[in-house]
Write a structure and sequence with these properties.
The complex is a heterodimer of chains A (117) and B (325). Chain A has 117 residues and is an all-alpha fold. Chain A has 5 helices and no strands. Chain A folds into 2 domains: 74 residues; 37 residues. Chain B folds into 2 domains: 169 residues, Cytochrome c oxidase, subunit III, four-helix bundle (Four Helix Bundle (Hemerythrin (Met), subunit A)), CATH 1.20.120; 102 residues, no CATH class. The longest helix of chain B is centred in the last third of the chain and has 33 residues. The chains are: A mainly alpha (117), B alpha+beta (325).
């Protein structure tokens, strides 16, 4: 089919994305092993800055995989939004509710655990 | 208009409809929506893990004290092996996308070789996961469980954990494993641990350098609390059982729920990888016998590719939430 012959090779881009994802993973692992005290033991918006870095790097990796490996970039905006917006909205909603609930359970229950023997 | 004839399936629906509202064939669109629903399933699991972790935020096991092993070499290497697994999966994603790319150019041999590389990467990953499970089930240092279920670990003067066997004093054992030949009223019993609670207590009392480490996390240092010598003995007076390794009922690293979630979530992900390998093998043989060459399109490779990348995507999140954060 004509449209398939028209496809150009993306191998250069694929290897670039692989390099990018690898660098992010290496940075994550190094930070995870070293756990620099300034990032690990301080607090920023409810958790440590280190956790925020991990979270953001994870989302960047997810973007790289979805957009370039799964070719979401080349899909029509309608398909892209139907999938991505739905997932992002529902996951944020679920995670927010469950994490709030988890903190509440901790507030209520942790004082009932005995640590004096 | 290309499809005004009556060949509806091939001409319109299967190819995405006359107007192509989503610009994708039926199969590819449905693969995307399957992935969306599967992503929500995994989010449900990970969010439940988050809830439980927040509930026990002051006693949750610290992951890089749990997963510290690599094959063939002894020592303490947090994260190294799981980072290797991540690389294997990302690299198999690369070979998959290269197979899709070769498919766009109708290069049959290249597609086949890249598919094969992807399959091998997947098998290495699943094998690594099996090894990770085995290591976790076997355990590293052993611990003592208290009457109320809390886990007590043992550290030396430098604060490093020590194995139970390294200090336990073997006493006179009355207790023998119950076996079928010993009675009609046979109840199956697991092999008895190599050391008993009384051995551990005797060894602990004889070795003044040892301390007990509890599950409790010191909020300032984000490390597990180490008790003083007197406190340690008070805690140990409430010992119930020896714990070695982790399973669905007990976990030497701390909360049993940590082990439960670990087995469930990585197991569910591992099952996805396994089914991905099966799909890839089927498609690999289809490529070899020339099915897609005859069909004039390698879109099936693209569809299993989507699934395979999704498995990689999930692993990125499992890696973050189980091992990093």
């Amino acid at each position: 089919m004509a449209q398939h012959q028209a496809h150009t090779s993306h191998t250069g881009l694929i290897w670039k994305v692989f390099g990018f994802l690898s660098i992010i993973t290496i940075v994550e692992v190094i930070l995870g092993i070293l756990k620099p005290a300034a990032l690990h033991l301080s607090s920023f918006l409810g958790t440590s800055p280190l956790n925020w870095i991990f979270l953001i790097l994870t989302l960047v990796k997810a973007y790289g995989i979805t957009w370039y490996f799964m070719h979401m970039k080349e899909e029509k905006a309608s398909l892209r939004r139907a999938v991505v917006w739905t997932a992002v909205f529902l996951i944020c909603y679920l995670a927010t509710l469950l994490l709030i609930e988890g903190s509440y359970l901790n507030d209520v229950l942790s004082s009932t655990v005995q640590w004096k023997f | 208009m290309e499809a005004t004839t009556a060949t509806t399936i091939e001409g319109t629906t299967w190819k995405g409809g006359n107007d192509k509202p989503l610009g994708a064939s039926y199969g590819k669109m449905m693969m995307w929506f399957f992935i969306l629903s599967d992503a929500l399933t995994f989010s449900g699991f990970l969010a439940a893990y988050g809830l439980t972790r927040f509930k026990f935020i002051d006693t949750w096991p610290i992951a890089d004290k749990v997963f510290t092993h690599i094959p063939f070499i002894h020592g303490n290497f947090p994260m190294i092996y799981v980072a290797f697994m991540t690389f294997v999966l990302i690299f198999s994603s690369v070979t998959m996308v290269l197979a899709v790319d070769a498919g766009h150019q109708m290069k049959k041999n290249k597609v086949a070789w890249y598919m094969l590389a992807t399959i091998i990467g997947g098998i290495i990953f699943v094998g690594s996961q099996a090894w990770e499970w085995k290591t976790f089930i076997k355990g590293s240092y052993g611990a003592v469980q208290m009457n109320d279920g809390k886990i007590l670990q043992f550290v030396d003067a430098t604060g490093h954990q020590v194995t139970l066997e390294s200090f336990a004093k073997a006493g006179h054992h009355e207790r023998a494993q119950h076996q079928a030949k010993n009675g009609v009223w046979f109840v199956k019993e697991a092999a008895l641990p190599a050391v008993t609670v009384s051995d551990v207590l005797a060894g602990f009392k004889a070795n003044p350098a040892l301390r007990v480490q509890t599950e409790k996390i010191d909020a300032a240092a984000k490390e597990k609390e180490i008790l003083s010598r007197e406190e340690s003995l008070k805690y140990l007076a409430h010992s119930k059982a020896i714990v070695k390794g982790a399973n669905l009922e007990v976990n030497e690293y701390g909360k049993t729920l940590f082990a439960d979630y670990f087995f469930f979530i990585t197991g569910f992900h591992g099952f996805h990888v396994f089914s991905g390998i099966v799909f890839n093998i089927i498609i690999f043989f289809n490529v070899i016998i020339g099915t897609y060459e005859k069909r004039g399109s390698y879109e099936m490779v693209e569809k299993v590719g989507l699934y395979w990348h999704f498995v990689d995507l999930v692993w990125v999140f499992v890696f973050t939430f189980f091992y990093l954060v």
